[in-house]
Amino acid sequence: MQSLVNSSITPLLNTPGPFNEFPGEFSPLEAVKALKETRVLMIGAGGLGCEILKNLVFTGFRKIDIIDMDTIDVSNLNRQFLFRESDIGKSKAEAAAAFLRRRIKDESLEITSHFCAIQEKDQSFYRQFSVVICGLDNVEARRWINALLVGMVDSALNNLIPMVDGGTEGFRGQSRVIIPTVTSCFECSLDMLSPKLTYPVCTIANTPRLPEHCIEWASQLEWPRRFGDRKFDADIPEDVDLMHSIALARAKEFGIANVTRSLTLGVVKNIIPAIASTNAIIAASCCNEVFKLVTSCNPVLDNYMMYSGDESIFTYTYAHAKKANCPVCGTEVRAISALRWWTLRNLIDVLKTKQEFLLKLPSVAKADIPLYIALPEHLRLLTENNLNMKLIDLVSPGEEVVVTDANLPISMRLLVSKYDGPDVEPQDISSLLKS
Amino acid sequence: MDSEIHKAARYDRQVRLWQRGGQARLEHSHVCVINGNTTSAEILKNLVLPGIGEFTIVDLKTVSDADLSGNFFLTETDVGSSIAEAICANLCELNADVRGNAVREDLLKLLNDSGFWRRFDVVVVTERIRKEQLERLEGILWPHNIPLMRVWTCGFSGAVRISRFETAVVDTHDPSPTFDLRLDCPWPELAAYADSFDLDELDDAEHAHVPYIVIYLKALEHWRKTNGSLLALPLSYPEKTDFRRNYVESMARNMGLETNFIEASQSIHRALQKTNVPASVAELFQRPETSDSSLRETKAPFWLLIRALKEFVSSSGGFLPLPGVLPDMVSTTSSYVLLQQIYRKKALEDKLTFLSIMLELHESLGFESDFDAETIANVCKNSALIHLSNGSQLNNHNNLLSRLSKSLEQSSDHNLLLVSYFGIVALDSLAEQESHDFSHFVQTFCDITRVPLQNLTEPIKNVLNELYIHNTSRYLNVCSYMGGIVGQEILKIVTAQYIPLDNLYVFDGIKSMSEKWKAL
Ligand SMILES: [Zn+2]
User: Nearest Cβ partner of A19 from B45, B70, B466?
Assistant: First the structure.
């Protein structure tokens, strides 16, 4: 029973404290057993993932699966401490698992790695776990796992797998506990994410003012024009140099300063600043929630903690409310008001760009009649002519459509409540400008 | 790979926050941690990874089996060896650029050598050391303005207190920048630029690309004429609304289409500000540290900058140096680039004026002019955000005690976090006693807080009970949380670009809440 002797956590589990919600049912032995036997899934073995894995293993967790599709890059080493220079190029999930197996000489430790995208696994895989922890830096993967976990719960609350989610950006971060269908879900708070910085195409094409405009011109317009199908690869230094020189030439032509290689890389890769300490704070908070959840020693965060450290230290903890019209966990229909001149394509663009939707490959159907199907290809070809039709001719005011996405397991009821504005699209003044 | 290129790649994600200047300061910093344990290892990990110059662990103890539990940076093979050396070696594996030192000396002896301590940029105490030793340490560090941090981890809770004479931040990062545009007092070149636009003469496309700075300058001139005051600004809400509707939007040809006018209409609160010296900076000008006699004595670089800034403001008619940073706005490239040149030219002129004031000041005081160009540039860019706060010593907390005694009946989360802090301090002070029980602990809490025992409410007793029942300093999740917080504050202190905690922070891992106070 060597692993039972974990003197750093036994004082927390020996006696239920005054805040324990079910002190009568609490058993120290059961709590330790739960730590040893609960199967935990760690999604992401990056900056947050390394911290979270360390904390799990050193607070008694013994059955951990790690899933990550990424390989190790030199810029990871300023915070991802389970990796060394000799690991560059290897799978993060495999390298992290190997490190922990070497580090912990305990036969009861079962660490399994999965070097693949989370979307490659199905429900039967996820059903094996009692908790899912996310330490991801991308929104798409979190939306996908969130929608999957919410969708797995039945009306009797079977297959309920709590999801603990952490996220960081520079000196800021957040941790949250999502109990699928019970608390608000990731999708409920989509509109709280800071929107990705984008620049209007007409600015990039005609009136660049910032160094970023020149870089976007190089990557969005000039690279495809010059190199056709040859995709830009940010991991190839020569490609980055080339992109930088194209942007620099553009900047010179317009008298714009400060197009650096570092800025070029930041813009084309959409790099988010990251430091070890913020990851440590958010990861520890997530693991503390998982520890309380699995041992039942104390109540779990309800349900959102924001952290900000760029001016003194600030946290804000609150219960984020469920959205009745959340496309994942809500039941109510979502309403949108359209403009008279819109084609179906305009609606699709709104679904792709508006912060509350941000869908990648939306399809739209009306009571079983497909209006536009993004995938598979043959259905897209059959429906793509509809894109140029006026929306008002396809969907009457007050009529409902169902929106789905090839990348997300969701189905959203969308009500086109009314049509406003002129029948013909007003001409954009910017397009008149000759540069 | 070339080592400089390699370093740039390795630190890319953090240098985007504190730039190369901050990274250079980090790489020249030396942090000392007294006591080797999980929390100190976690703090140092967050400094070794981003590449701090040097760290030192002071501890006499050897590694026991119990030390291994919950500590990622100790292994079975370390049992029996020096804990300072073992943690140091395991941390150094994370980053070859960092130098780690283990000092196995008696703290009491080290405290006799104040020179030993003055080499550090920050000193952290992660476990109880004797009260008189802590006071001795603080006495050494305080006059040299070296921050001393005391960190506690207790069950599901943690706290940190910073003791430092004063904290100055010159190169401040503003998380939500406002722009100094001088729209209410345009200098001649800016006014002439605005006058060069005759809106009626422009075609529709040109009209929709007039930068909003020009729109404001024209609207403001019109507004001032109508209102009969040549220097006023629309400041009240009704004035701003009137200004937006009847002066800005009324100049548009089509408010639905002209994005520059839409932008102008939406940016009034941010862009149209009264240009002045912020009160926080004006206060610094009044400080005795800026006098000739004081400067001759201290030669303090910070106060020399403030004195020069003060002279700049009086010679410029009440203005700080112009930062010269222009936000993006709808415009043609040529108009924007020209406007940017006007702002940059003025900023450069201000910088040169400031530089000559600095040189004169140094000459008149008989000092060498050993300041660098980067410092001058940073001051001129950030003068409105210069931050100075005076700290307080670890024993001071009377303001918190009176807050606590006044609000005993309110069991708000805020007050209960304060109870946690004094509970942690009380428990810590019991550590030197051989045995104690809960009532003993509660009595100690009452002694420290001067709260009569019979006044303790049920929620307060629960907080104390929780601390007592789950009293361990080794719960990794709390050690790692506090290690992150302390690491973050040290990074802020040594890069000198972000405003650090002043001076007490408490975390409660049961409610997952935290709060900060300034204890005085
Ligand atoms: Zn939801």
Answer: B466
